[in-house]
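U., I forgot to send this yesterday:
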Amino acid sequence: MNIKKIAYYLATAVLTGIMIFSVQMYLRNPEAIAGYFESVNYPGYLVYPLATAKILGLIAIWGNFSKWLKEWAYAGFFFDVTLAFTAHMVAKDGGELFSIIAFFALMVSYFLGKTVRP
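Result:
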């Protein structure tokens, strides 16, 4: 296996781990997460749809069913990570580190996914 393929799978695994961690937080304690969302002016009702979208996005990326669907999943994660970074910066809670890691993992996974055959 070449280095690009290893980097692709490693970056995609890191992104997956961060997204699964956030999904489990959303599902285990939705009231607290909704309260956090509302404290940074995001609607609290987004908890379940966002958790569902993250799960479906991961399925689209790993399943590799459709190039079009995979592109939309990456776009959704881009917006999610960008908005999460902004929310953590506004809240000043120190959580922006995971958003930065997720952003770099997302970019590496996306661009290497175009050059290697996953």
